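New to this. Look over this protein:
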Amino acid sequence: MKLKKPSKTKVVRKNVKKVKKMKKDLSEITTDEFMNQDFEASASDSEPEIGKFNDSDSESELDPKAHKKSLQKLQNTDPEFYEFLKQNDKKLLNFDVSDQEDSEDEEDETVHRPNEHLHVASDEEDDLESIERKAPEGVTKVSLKLLKLWQEEIQTDKSAKTIKNITEAFHAALLTVADPEASKNIRYKVEGSAVFNGVVQLCIIHLPTAFRNFLKISSKSKFEAHKSKRFYKIKGTLKAYLSDLLRILQNVTSPDILTVLLKHLHQMIPYTQSFSSLTKPLMKILIKFWSSGEETVRVVAFLSILQIAMNRADSTRETLMKTMYIKYVENSKFVSESTSAGINFMRHSLAEIYLLDHNLAYTHAFLYVRQLAIHLRNAVTLKKKENFQTVYNWQYINSLRFWSELVVLSNSKSMLRSLLYPLVQIIIGTITLIPTAQFYPLRFHCCQMLINISKEAGVFIPVLPYLLEVLTDYDFNKKHTSVTMKPLSFICLLRMSKAQLQENGFKNSVIDNIYQLILECAAKDSHMICFPDMYVFCIIQLKSFLKKCKVANFCKKIKQLVDKIEMNRQFIETERNKIIVDLSDMPTIRNWENTIKNKGTPLSKFYESWYNLHQSQKLKMLTQNDAEGNLNLPILKRSQKRKQGNDFDHDSDLDMPVEEMNKLLKKQEERKMKRVKKQKLVRQEVEKDVPINDSDIVKDTNVDDWT
């Protein structure tokens, strides 16, 4: 039976390993410390090989002369390996003792290097990697001095040489951070944070102007770089630099650095139009920062998106609209004081993108508004919990809010105006889907959308019935079971919990929202010639509420609202009696209404002053700048012996400081004594006059402590 002859590859592999060992041993022989070192014998090999030493005979084998003799005996012991060395590395066989007497500083002569023409099969590259790898030749280390030289050259050099050098250094700087192994095969080497920052700064400041000067492009904002005659000379360099710029944007987290890089990208946006392969990753990065970045980062990213959308009228704009709307819906799932500003910015900026192309915007709006209508229809017909939840959530409400703003921002001749009627019907259907007190906040959000549409589009929408219905259906005389020191805001709420419905802040917030919305709606119509007739039913309903309500604070606000509407009604009637009205002459009526509007009505002037104060309080709450917001304010704890009906239900008193509240308690006690002496049993309607027992104390407590 014949033995299988080993393959040539395996023989070469075995011989190369031996060469590596001999190289290591010969380099160790040349050191002066060689005779003072101890080496351990290999436990795996039974016989010593060349370059392997045993503890027993280390003195004899450490001698260079003995090592030379062993090389001479190699021809008899291993002729195959001897022939391998003879063909590939004769220098190793001609080892001379005198060569070891050279100076230690000549390290290049003492280190063995294999023959450059040594050929190994491709499947053995991993084993021979350490032998074949060479130190990169021609690598230039970037220094601050070199950067200063490039900075001077790029301003005067009319060729692309300096631009290519800077972009290659920028690429080397990124590889140094992202992939150090790949940075060994590049032309430049960047080390140190100062040099890294210098390279990035040089690119940001000078490259946009350098590219423009090289391509001989004018200073106009809109240009197409690929139409330049010199574009082909710098095409590869420009594309590589833009790819590196996108890569560094993906790995930076600091908002300040991102802002600087995005401003630089904004200058480079016109160049990206010449490379269709960069469009998708570019838009992905910009939309990510627009939807989830810090405030300044969001704004700068949107400016780049807007520039792309304005310069490209192809399928890029359509994809951009769809992707941005989906991102808007995804990020509007939860609304709070911290996220409301970002959601509002996304909604307004997205509307700017859609208004660039009304026809394309109508196509998207029709599909998405129809989708909202289908969800509402399923909730009305099926009446299941999951269908109700599909409509009564922040994503649905924010979608309605976006499309309503988009429709009113479009001009009267736009196709988007044709969606006004179905959109109003969807909003009204959303209000009436579950008309309970638990969803009063959602009702107020929808009414605000209807008022905005009516104001901006100049159409009549019956909003007052959905506000007056709350005053009719809900019992505001019902006593609350818990008290909150902090006022309850509906800005970031859609649904009230059962516990919140029992708080005193709920009724106060409902009255405040009704007051605000009716006042805004009346101020919107205050200049119309039909105002006295239009608000007759509203005045009757408000006066009916005043007769039923026994809470002084609520009556005070509603009565003020009635007085302002009555005052404006009398003003319009007086002005209307001065002219002869022809109902068929609409242009004359419009001119009269515009005159009254420009002059100003009593209600519009009052609303303007009230709105300024209300907006400042609203912004203060949203930005969380209230100094008392983080303080643990004291809460009144009532005595369990108090009489039934003596309910301290005055929210304005609870907002007072402790000292003022104590003074109020003393006054109330004095009034109580006077009433006892005079034997007057008539109870006051104003709640601050309600007596409180002496045992009431002021201390920190929880809502659960209330009885």
